[in-house]
Amino acid sequence: MDAILLQILNGLDKGSAYALIALGLTLIFGTLGVVNFAHGALFMIGAFCAVVMQRLLNLSYEVVDPTRTDFLGNPLKVQMPYVESWFGTEFGGGLIEWSVPLSILLAIPVMVGLGFAMERGLIKHFYKRPHADQILVTFGLAIVLQEIIKYFFGANPIPTTSPDLFSGSFDFGVLLGFDPNTIIYPYWRMVYFLFALIIIGGVFSFLQFTTFGMVVRAGMADRETVGLLGINIDRRFTIMFGLAAAVAGLAGVMYAPILSPNYHMGMDFLVLSFVVVVVGGMGSLPGAVLAGFLLGILQSFASMNEVKSIIPGIDQVIIYLIAIIILLTRPRGLMGRKGVMED
Fold first, then answer.
1. Which of 27, 40, 51 is nearest to 249 (CA)?
2. What is the largest CA-CA distance in the chain?
3. pLDDT at residue 274 above 70?
4. Which whole-number Å values give the CA distances from 157 to 1, 52, 153, in the listed order?
5. Which residue ranges does UniProt annotate as crossing the membrane (predicted)?
6. Which of 17, 110, 145, 276 could covalently link to 22 via disulfide, CB atoms 3.0 to 4.6 Å apart?
7. What CATH number labels 2-61+98-329?
């Protein structure tokens, strides 16, 4: 039982990332009908927003510290971060420590602006083109964004730390009555899971309970009729593209302490997230979220040494095997809608 609970917990953080990326993909496909292969690059750029914020807050200048000396007795020159000199050591140091959560303030305008630029500058020209054309152009855009990140930040992963408050692990075993140190789970992974639930709940609430969201849902069902009512549905769909980009970016920001940002992390998550979308059902937002968590947990179970000793490499292909089984039994996915990509 403890091994089962541990694998479920281990699958939640990766399942959260899958669910958030797949949610954004489904938002774009459901509103604009575009298969966006650049969505994984948005996840990557979000992670690098955390890197940029961390570097900005650590910008420093050289000062002489009279309390410290070198081996000759001369005062040492040390680096003083600007934020510590402006706001004091305690508050400025706190800003540096909390650079990842603060990166959200940077990521939201950057990702929304990038989403608007992508939709207005490129993707709008491919609305009526075949899905194959959309895949090719957005995949090419993803490669361009990936190479830009590689040029400015290099090819190596960049460690990004979470706040010290969440640097340890929580002993779930004691809470559930098991022996101490039986089920240990990092605090930041718990934070990421809760963060994902908040974002997912916020998106669904926005679509369900606001007038803007109701119009968007109506446009997803019948775009022409909504347009005939005098509503500028194209503008609303552009905003939804920006929202989807922001969701992917925020997923990347908070995932940075879990997986050190690197230029190819977007591609690593993109393919799996598209599988999640297909399994959940094309155009189904609840299906994308459900499939994201489900496949993340199944991948965690497949990563157990006991399972890999029986079926070597199963952790690398389990998601695709599950996708094949589900699509053979339910061709539209778990919660797919009739008529979506069936023409």
1. 40
2. 82
3. yes
4. 35, 14, 9
5. 15-35, 42-61, 102-123, 135-153, 190-216, 237-258, 270-298, 310-328
6. 276
7. 1.10.3470
pLDDT at 281: 82
For helices 265-280 and 39-57, the axis angle rounded to 10 degrees is: 140
Helix axis angle, 89-97 to 39-57, nearest 10°: 160
CA atoms within 13 A on the CB side of 285: 17
Under 8 Å between Cβ of 250 and 199: yes
- DSSP labels for 271-298? HHHHHHHHHH-TT-HHHHHHHHHHHHHH
- Separation between Cα atoms, residue 267 and residue 265, nearest integer Å: 5
This prediction has a pTM of: 0.87
Q: Which residues pair with 171 in a beta bridge?
A: 184
Token pair, residue 308, equals: 């890999």
What confidence score (pLDDT) does residue 44 get? 93
List of residues 6+ apart from 226 with CB closer than 8 A: 215, 218, 219, 233
Nearest 5°: the CA angle 23, 26, 30 is 140
264 and 148 in contact (C-beta within 8 Å)? no
Which neighbouring-strand residues pair with 291?
A: none
Q: Helix, strand, or coil here: 77? A: strand
Distance, in Å, from the CA atom of 133 to the CA atom of 248, rounded to the nearest integer, reads: 23
Q: Are 252 and 96 in contact (CB under 8 A)?
A: no
Question: Quick one: DSSP state of residue 16?
Answer: H
Q: How deeply is 44 buried, as exposed, middle or buried, from its count of CB atoms within 10 A (0-12, 13-18, 19+)?
A: buried
Is residue 189 a contact partner of residue 12, using CB atoms and an 8 Å limit?
yes
Residue with tokens 């305008």: 109
How high is the pLDDT of residue 62? 83
